[in-house]
Amino acid sequence: MVIVGAGFGGLRAARALRRAPVEVVLLDRHNYHLFQPLLYQVATAGLEPEQIARPVRAILRGQRNFDFRLVQVTGVDLATRRLHTDAGPVGYDYLILAPGGETNFFGLPGVARHGFGLKDVGDALAIRNHVLGAFERAMLEADAERRRALLTLVVVGGGPTGVEMAGALSELCRLVLAKDYPRLDLKDVRILLLEATDRLLGPMPERLRESAADRLRRKHVEVRFGAAVEDYDGQRVRLKGGEVVPAATLIWAAGAKATDLGATAGLPAARQQRIRVEPTLQLAGHPEAYVIGDAAYIEADGQPLPMMAPPAIQMAETAAANILRALRGEPPRPFRYRDAGSLATIGRNAAVAYIYGIQFTGFVAWVVWLVVHIIQLIGFRNKLFVLLNWTWDYFFYERASRLITKD
Ligand SMILES: Cc1cc2nc3c(=O)[nH]c(=O)nc-3n(C[C@H](O)[C@H](O)[C@H](O)COP(=O)(O)OP(=O)(O)OC[C@H]3O[C@@H](n4cnc5c(N)ncnc54)[C@H](O)[C@@H]3O)c2cc1C
Question: Which of 51, 119, 278, 326 has an alpha carbon 20 to 30 Å from 385's alpha carbon atom?
């Protein structure tokens, strides 16, 4: 039983098979599971990567039928039931592909070259180093216009990642860096959140969407709707319609697509490069091969499932249950998504939450957000350190991780 990817989906599938009469081998190009929903806090100097990630071997070391291989999977040969990896072929009887997604720059080469995506630890550290470095460069810059460009941070995309990133950047600049750089004029710091449509947090109810925009504005974030980015050269963001915003930093939170593993393996492709699967999550014509999580394309009520953690986790449970059913000679069952809702924080005391049809805003939503994220983090040590960090930052207006390690 081979699983590709130790993300939300792959890890849950491995755990769901812990008592099954199978040997489970998990493959990943990293030796850790990463809690991506808190990556933006690494990017904004609030947390260290180790606090939101944990080695896969440590997470699953109590599981007797489990083993791990640190490899990059480069291809899938469904006919011979083999995976190609950078360490040679790996055969399987059953396969679960859960390689997740990557940033989608929508074919904008300037943005891909000069902007920052946010998908893994490397991206988050690159943003942290770059933003802190820009403040240092602003201290050395005599020209007022160039200094303002260094202190202008543009976030593109009004989904949860863009909203959380813009709110966290504003607090980093106004509550923490303002103390570190008393000689810089705070009026020069500009944080823009650019959204091409007319709304933030698209699938949320209108009241929550408006609350999020309002909270961001109160945190001095310039929220701009109908603002589509056409190009970025590292110095200037060019918008559709011709407007140019001088900015040394552009963070792209406007799109995701599946990794290219499906395309390189010639698997059936759907929107966002995702792999089309049967309602049972199997690949058509290959009942032994499943695809789950961000990489899988499946619809519910005529809409593709969102690229989020809950669908990945629930798909993992269905795929594992279907493999157990196959071992017992029973037919597989179709996947049904149970949508519990969604959350986004805008910063201290401010969040929006839509859970089981109930809407929360402000402090209550923020506490719900904190509790949900602490519960979901893997490992007691990580939960404890993150909670300690948040408590410290809350009372002392600090951010622990402000070292510039590379720029
Ligand atoms: C910044 C950010 C914030 C997010 N916030 C939220 C949120 O608040 N709530 C929410 O529900 N979702 C959020 N998401 C989305 C959520 O993280 C994903 O939907 C979820 O991780 C998908 O799970 P997965 O198992 O499909 O893939 P992933 O968790 O991405 O795991 C894929 C794994 O596969 C490995 N891999 C990929 N390709 C290969 C290969 N070729 N060979 C070997 N290994 C490979 C990767 O290293 C990775 O470990 C966020 C995502 C990001 C990037």
Answer: 119
The stretches of 283-361 forming alpha helices (DSSP H) are 309-327
What's the whole-model pTM score?
0.96
Residue 364: phi and psi, rounded to 5, are -60, -45
Residue 293 near ligand 1, beta carbon < 6 Å: yes
Token digits for 57? 């071997």
Question: 153: closest CA among 281, 13, 249?
Answer: 249
Counting Cβ atoms within 10 Å, is residue 325 exposed (0-12), middle (13-18) or buried (19+)?
A: middle
Of 248, 252, 43, 44, which is closest to residue 148 (Cα–Cα)? 248
Helix axes 362-376, 380-396, angle to 10 degrees: 150
Catalytic residue, candidates 164, 210, 222, 278: 164
Span 111-169, pLDDT tens digits:
999 999 999 999 999 999 999 999 999 999 999 999 999 999 999 999 999 999 999 99
Of 57, 272, 308, 343, best ligand 1 pocket probe by most atoms within 8 Å of the beta carbon: 308
User: Is 222 among the residues known to form the active site?
Assistant: no
Q: Is the CB of 172 under 6 A from ligand 1?
A: no
